[in-house]
Amino acid sequence: MTGNNDSSASDVIANVAAAAALGNGLDTENGKKMAQNRRKWRLGLFLLLVVVFLWVVSSFMVNSIFETEIYRKPYLVTYLCTASFSLYLIRPLMDGSITLKRKGFKSLNTYDSDDSPESVSLASDTEENLSSTEAADRVSADLETAERRPDDSLTIHETSMLSLQFCVLWFAANWLANACLSYTSVASGTILACTSSFFTLIIGSLVGVEKFSQRKLFAIMASLAGIFLISTQDSADDDENNNLTAGSIIVGDLMSLASAAIYGLYTSLLKVRIGDESRINMQLFFGFVGIWNTIILWPVLLILHITGAERLEMPPTPYVWLILFLNCLATLGSDYLWIVTILLTSPLVVTMGLSGTIPLAVIGDILFNHVHVSLWYLVGAVLVGSAFFVINRDEEKEHHIIPDDDSAEDAQEITVS
Length: 417
Description:
The chain is built from 16 helices and no strands. It is mainly alpha-helical. The protein has one domain (42-110, 156-416).
């Protein structure tokens, strides 16, 4: 009898040890996963800074030829910039089959259902007799294998169709962002673009890529309050800007708001359709966006020319040629990095990150346009910038980039008990 009790006690101890080893293995895997996500998130934030810089530079270049009436062609400029995305197809076409067979260019669904991540069992019957070390090694290997398997990567045809669905929204948002610079200042246009965060939160919550919370809503409301302060100051400075009237500023601000709404819409929808950045080849996506825009939207150029709304004319000076070329380069790089940033982080963080354009735009207006900035202007900029840090921290917790405070407290309670 005593022997049976001793045997049972030994089995219990062995099972507890095996369970502890399994738990340690899972903790290690979770730690590696969190570290990997943290690196991706930090990379996304760095790329966001690059995007912000390129967007502000592009805005000032376009504003320099629009506001002075040297070459006021917002539709043509946007058409040329989006058509330049076609250059991203040069490398895949030159590489031929080598590029086309790379992972991410085609679907890889050749694994058996038994090999799916869901089939990884942490306590299967075959592991009952394994030692604790062997069990931990088995689980670690299974998890690593499951993590390496490709998910449902988009084929070339699927990538082309996805770019077709989004190319019109993409063009509309960029055209409105360029056209508004004819009617308002760069600072006002970039600041109002930050309202895309509000649209992103609402739309993202509806489609399931964002979690709605009062904290996020309050942060966005603080951002909008800052935007209101800056926009009010922008209108108050009308007398100091001979090229802009109160009416034109209102039109420009409304166009910027419309652009922000479209940005919020397709950033959320892109995250829904793509999910992880490993599912799609971004060069193909942007290349097809350029091709579709070139094919679909050229008739509008003729309509605008015939109606007199925007005449088709060659750039009048080498300076305008240079501005158009540099703007295409800036758009070619910034929009590509912008989509990558969305997939590395979240749509809400990226749209809130547009607030980073505010200090750069304000400094640019002070230096190049001789705009006088009041104290309320600066207060508004601080409100918008602070809201971004609040949103980013909440998003990092939700995406398990940093430990959640509640989870950390629960872990401490479990450890103490």
